[in-house]
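Record 1 of the preview.
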Amino acid sequence: MNGVCILLVAAAVAFGLAKLLRLPPIPLLILVGAGLHELANFWQIEVPETLLSNMMELGLAVLVFTAGVDLSPRRMLGRTRSIIIVATVQFIILGLAGVLTAFALGYDLTTALYLGCALSASSTLVVVRHLQRRRQMFEPFGRLVLGVLLVQDLFIILIMVALLKAPDGLLEIFFALTRAIGLGCLAVGIHRWFVPWVTRRLKLDDEELMLGALGILFIFSGLAYLLKLPFLAGAFFAGFSISAFPLNGLVRGMLGSLSSFFLALFFISVGAALTLPHGDMLWHSLIFIIVLIVVTVGLVSVIGEAVGYSTRASIEAGILLSQTSEFSLLLALTGMASGQISAELFSMITLITVSTMTLTPLISRDKVAWSLMKLHPRYRRGELDCATLQNHAVLLGYGRAGRQTLQAFKEHDIPAIVIDDDAAVIRKLIADDVRCIQGDGSNVRILARANCRGARVVICSMRRTRDAQIALDYLKKYPTKVFIRTFEAEETEFVRNAGGIPIETARASAHSMLEWLDVNLRKE
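->
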């Protein structure tokens, strides 16, 4: 009990420092845990390894369970093929890159396989929290990323089972994989039939829902133990089983603070259990981090665009997936416990995982995505000369309504130009013989190329409303009408004050819905 109290006090100190210094809590939790370990050695206080191991396992189980609640397969509907292609290609190529890098650095086959598997899957915990914080869970690239996480988590569970049973022979691997698939089928059955029945028939209060969710976690963890499977497989399948709407939303809200508590307990315990790698391993960790980020961002960007996603969505998905997973830590932990890898290699995998988890929020910014988009190959050969047009329409950003907008201008015999920075969008427009310019709609030179000052109307649907400020300033003394999409009242006021005409998205959507209802009700 004293050991648990010390870990909790250390976690409180780490969270306090993170808030004071405005830094991510995970690296500080690791550092404080490592400092706690050094202090214990200095004062000759023995910290039981079983306590740290149990705290890591318990914390990781709750974290994986909480993350699994957000991985509903319904978010893959209509995108299953593209998600499976992206997930499979990334998993295989990244794992192969990790194995080859390990061989190049002089590691043996078993160690190389552990390193390759550790690199191959992305962190559900980090990605889901990032998407929730930025309210991007339902954006196209957000759905792509969540689908990829679900598929990769299933892959890593099966590979983890196979690796742990490898010393016992092929027959034992086969039986273990069969048991894991059976547990997954049970989770699918509960997700598809039992959870909808519960939400329809039973009216549960918050406490009953919380107890029911934790009960599912303990049941699946117990089944995993009886089936001789990794406990984390049971925790993941438990979360997946209750990921159906609307139960997942209710459970997620109640598990938020519980998840933070176990996150702190887990990473403090990881820090206290670490063995500091020697100089070569630190350099090796840096090499693996670089390989992970470069291969993931480049590969997902190319494959995502190839299966139909825009350049920006593909790049954002690649950036968001460029870290290792909680499963990597469990894989390293179980490999160390079974004697297949050393404590120093466990520390190295932990260092890679924590470093990439910490880097993800820092590199998953709009500026980074914009910078990478500038490196994308251009399609200048298909762009048409637009500088001589007069009384035309200019679309700053193709957006979701681009096709309908172009069709409306075509019906009124108004020539139109699309300005978009997405190479995939430009390539499609060129194929459809649409006048287009690849570039940033907030760049004066791009606006001049489209002869915006001679245009009849400019419609701005760029992602950030304030990007239209440059276009408004550029056209301030000209008769061109500038329409700008807005989402919030503050944005609407900003556009009016700057001389533009706001199109309030919420009101426009409500108006369209009411018109549709009116027409269809009259038919009935």
